[in-house]
Amino acid sequence: MTNWRVERDWPxxxxxxxxxxxxxxxxxxxxxxxxxxxxxSGVALDTLLxxxxxxxxxxxxxxxxxxxxxxxxxxxxxxxxxxxxxxxxPGQPFRLVxxxxxxxxxxxxxxxxxxxFVEIFLAKEGHDGLVGVNYLEKIQMATPAAAYxxxxxxxxxxxxxxxxxxxxxxxxxxxxxxxxxxxSVDVIxxxxxxYTAGVRPELISGADVExxxxxxxAIVASHVLASxxxxxxxxxxxxxxxxxxxAGGHNAPPRGPLSFDEEGQPVYGARDVVDLEKLATLGLPxxxxxxxxxxxxxxxxxxxxxxxxxxxxxxxxxxxSGFDASLKRAFIESALSGTLHVRTDPVASPTGFPFxxxxxxxxxxxxxxxxxxxxxxxxxxxRVPYRxxxxxxxxxxxxxxxxxxxxxxxxxxxxxxxxxxxxxLIAAIGLGQRHRDGAVEPPLATIGQDLSFLPGLLxxxxxxxxxxxxVAYLLQGVSG
Length: 480
Hints:
Blueprint: H1 4-8, E1 13-15, H2 25-32, E2 38-41, H3 45-54, H4 61-66, H5 72-82, H6 106-124, E3 131-136, H7 143-152, E4 157-161, H8 168-176, E5 181-185, E6 195-199, E7 215-220, H9 223-230, E8 239-243, H10 276-280, E9 286-289, H11 295-303, E10 308-311, H12 313-316, H13 325-337, E11 342-345, E12 355-358, H14 367-372, E13 384-387, E14 393-396, H15 402-407, H16 421-427, H17 454-458, H18 467-475
Parallel strand pairs: 1-10, 2-3, 3-4, 4-7, 7-8, 8-9, 9-10
Antiparallel strand pairs: 5-6, 11-12, 13-14
């Protein structure tokens, strides 16, 4: 059986790229210095950078990273637009960043590139460990600029899920060679017309910058998709993360006819179990994810031929994660008391993918909080483009104001119970928008359904733990 760790020096542990800012640079850095793969979430980094600058950039981390960005002009423009010395007054709304589109301004592209550069720069600062970035294939319009920014900072791995990431190998190849990188964008009603999003490196860096091509890991939920991606060089990743349906965040829909349990959760069956023997025949390393946070299951994964495991929830609740401190405490206390309920909601996310929702007080999981929240689509990362009757392209989201969605050709029934995932996840890390009417965006909390690791990590008399504790807990007794 192939020993991937010996043959190619692959990591045993991959820290999951959770949520928006939960897997931020402090967490990725803390994992990387242990010798394992630390991963930042690459979603909405332009918004996170802009809001942190508007809070005064405590610790000056963003300004320090921007000082190393290849284009001083871009850095100065970003600071001039968003940095507020001393921070905004309490209650003052954050200035918004440009929303994603097929024809973004250069200013918008620059911000995405710089934000991804900053996050990877800070995650890699001061050590030689491995750092990766996690993107959602669904967010296609940001992909080329985001990947280029991460590569400018020397990212080691790129991981992509929530879709079929067939174009990523070619994108990374093009950007590493200094060429324009682009991906196809799904446009509703486009017919045979092809739409793309791209980035031109020469318009951003201001100079020739030599880049190395990061390894690419496709996040999949079936050996069928893995086989499809592996069959041609242009789509073949360097490896796979195989994610089961109990993992937090977005999940792949069940294969076959859709049915629901008594709680309204989609039912996963035998067709959703990945055939590891078939996966192994592809000749590429793979990591198993979704309720694998134990030494025993890590050992079983290695015995099954995996290179290791990906762990999310255990890292999401450690001290270095980006979750708001009060939300993190609520997670831990309710999990230890046995009162935490995490459900797979088939309609909460506007993407159409099932989404893990934690029923915590004060979050939009609560019907009364959801009902009181004013529907607004300010971040817009999950808006989808559609072709209008006049041939132009518009953008809509089932979680936006009902009248706007219907006016754009959307169906009323598609809006029922939709949560604003973008605003909710941003609020979960303490950066929720402050509205002019005094309301603050309520958080949306997501995590995996297996938190059985908590007693072992906390031990006796502790109410928190560090990322390094997770690594030690999982790797104790694991050889080579």
